[in-house]
Structure formats: C-alpha cells, structure tokens
UniProtKB/TrEMBL annotation:
This is Aminoglycoside phosphotransferase family protein. It comes from Paenibacillus anaericanus. The keyword Mitochondrion does not apply. Residues 27-262 form the Aminoglycoside phosphotransferase domain. GO terms for molecular function: transferase activity. SUPFAM superfamilies: Protein kinase-like (PK-like) (SSF56112). It comes from the Bacteria. The keyword Transferase applies. Keywords: Transferase. Transmembrane segments: none annotated.
C-alpha cells in the first residue's frame, strides 16, 4: 500500500477559510473518478469540498494544472453557467497539513442518467461546448507544450505485472494487446498532425459533470481543463451524451448535439479519420492510469485500487466499442456537416 494517503482536515480547512463552524458530519458524495468530494454544511452555508488525490498532487505539473484549470473556469463562467472554485486569500487551491482542497458553493441540481438524457439536453450541451470553444482565453497566456500527447506505452509490461498479481483484467487486456499497440501508433500520428490546431476547453464534459436544475445546466469539475482539438472534443462529448442506458449510440441524440454545436460554432471542417484516431488518446491514457492504480504503482488505498481495477475493465470495453463504432460515426458526422 502507498505511504501517500488522504489526510482530511475539514474543521481546520473551514476555520482557515472562515467558512463557519461545521454542522453535523461531512458526507462523502460522488466526486468523479480521481478525487473525493464531500458535502459540508457550516453555520455560514453549505459547500462541496473536493479533496484532491494526494498521489496526483505528487506530480510536478499537478499544482499548475489545477491553477490553470480554475483560471479557465472563471473565464468560461462569463459566457456560460459554470462553477469555479471559491477564491480565498489569493488562491483557489488550499493546503491543510499536506492535503489539497478545492471548495465550491453548494448548488442545487443533479447529473442525468443516460436514460434520462433527451434531444433537448444534447442540443443544449452541444451549444454550450461551442460557447466554451469560442471563449477568449488569451489573457491567461497559457502555452501548449504538447507534453500530454500519448507516448508509446509498454502495454505488455503491464500485462506481465497483471499476470504476476493474478489481476482480474488479465484476460481482457491480453485479448486487445495487439490492438493497443496499433491504437497507440494511430493516436501518436494524429497528435502530431493536430499539434498546432488546439483550443482551450473543459475536456471532460460528460453527463456526470453537468448539474441540471429545472432544465438549466451548470458545468462543474473543470480540473481537466486545458488544450484540446475542438473537433476531437466535439466528437468525444457528442458520444458521451448520445449513449443510451445499454451503452449504444443514439443517432438522433448525436445529430442533435452536433446541431446545437453548429448553431454557435458554425460550419465544421476536419479530416475526420485523423480526428477519430486522436480520440484514442484520452482512453489510452485513462487505461494506463488505472492499470497503475490496480497494480499499486500509483494508488492511495484499497478503495482506489479496486476502483482502478474496475476502470481497467470498463475502459477496455470502451476502447473496443469506440474502435468498432468509428466507421458509423464518421458517416454520421459527414451527414451532419452537410446539413
């Protein structure tokens, strides 16, 4: 087990930030797949407090990435309904005894389940994504160094470690090991081709990161915000919102999303094969990260290790499904581009 553990100090955090005295016991709520989120009520209000994953915060670039993400969220909030973290004492990221936190004002609402998403939701989010893409972030003076582009990954090394540990995903990884090599090469080639064509965006606008209240969406969880190719993110986000409860793509929802996006962004132009090849990058990166969590290479505790294991299996299925769906998706996007 890793020596790096969560060190939750909510009382000290609330005292330091003058958020009031805590009422009751902080309640852990859904906070994504990387960090831990808690609902905390005090004498001055209610807050959503995100305890940042201590393993991730060990990375040299992590702090600056979070700082940049919150700056991006604050600019986006001028054009769309977005929720940046509370800024106190000159910062949005707060450290108490080595544990880092983001604190948010509590907002009413909930994320939608796949079976609840309809045409209206898809078209609305498509338009919001385009608004994010068209926002001006130039005053942030951020520079894209392309360090997050996927590199050649030693998938067989992870497979060997999994076999040694009798990991439950070994069979699944073995079945796609050759495909992983091919997808990694394709992703690298597309990354080079698209290197100079990036904008700043949310980069994780799936249904769990949108809170709805009376059909009004609030965009949350900006921690992944940064540089992204606009068309890659558009396709990726359209897929998130177009899946039904069984995980299959709904063409009508997909087209509605693209329609909403085009209503703000305008005409779409791209080499769609390159765009779809690039879509492997995030999925491959997520697979490798969860292999590390599952194998205790980068993990805080047993709960995270189990989450990593589940995510390895889920991501393998997602990669297979994405690869199989590309020809049909390409037809859909070409149809929508002509409309």
């Amino acid at each position: 087990m890793s020596d790096v553990q969560y060190n939750l100090q909510f009382e000290k955090l609330c005292n330091t930030l003058e958020l009031g005295e805590i009422i009751g016991v902080p309640e852990e709520i859904s906070g994504g797949l990387l960090n831990r989120m808690y609902a905390v009520e005090t004498t001055l209000g209610k807050y959503a407090i995100k305890a940042l994953n201590p393993q991730i915060m060990l990375r040299p670039e992590a702090m600056q990435n979070y700082i940049n993400a919150e700056r991006i969220a604050n600019i986006a909030a001028k054009k769309i309904n977005a929720l940046p973290a509370i800024h106190v004492n000159g910062t949005s990221i707060h450290e108490i005894e080595g544990q880092f936190y983001l604190v948010f004002h509590w907002v009413e609402g909930r994320s939608l389940k796949l079976q609840e998403i309809n045409i209206y939701h898809c078209e609305k989010i498509g338009a919001i994504l385009a608004e994010i893409h068209r926002s001006d972030y130039s005053k942030l003076e951020l520079v894209h160094d392309f360090s997050d582009d996927v590199q050649l990954t030693a998938w067989r090394s992870y497979l060997q470690k999994g076999q040694e540990n009798d990991s439950e995903w070994v069979k699944h990884l073995f079945e796609i090991i050759d495909d992983l090599d091919n997808w990694t090469v394709q992703a690298n080639q597309s990354a080079r081709l698209l290197a100079a064509d990036s904008i700043i965006s949310h980069r994780d606008l799936d249904p769990k990161n949108v809170m709805w209240h009376n059909d009004n969406p609030m965009i949350i969880d900006w921690e992944a915000a940064g540089f992204m190719n606009a068309m890659v993110e558009m396709i990726e986000t359209a897929m998130y919102w177009s899946k039904n409860a069984e995980g299959n793509m709904d063409k009508e929802k997909f087209m509605a999303f693209i329609r909403g996006y085009k209503s703000i962004y305008g005409t779409l132009h791209a080499d769609w094969k390159v765009i779809f090849d690039n879509g492997f990058i995030g999925k491959l990166g997520w697979l490798e990260y969860n292999l590390k969590r599952s194998l205790w290479i980068e993990c805080t505790d047993e709960a995270e290790q189990q989450l990593g294991t589940a995510q390895v299996i889920g991501t393998i299925y997602e990669l297979r499904g994405y690869a199989d769906m590309i020809p049909e998706l390409e037809e859909w996007i070409i149809q929508s581009s002509r409309a």
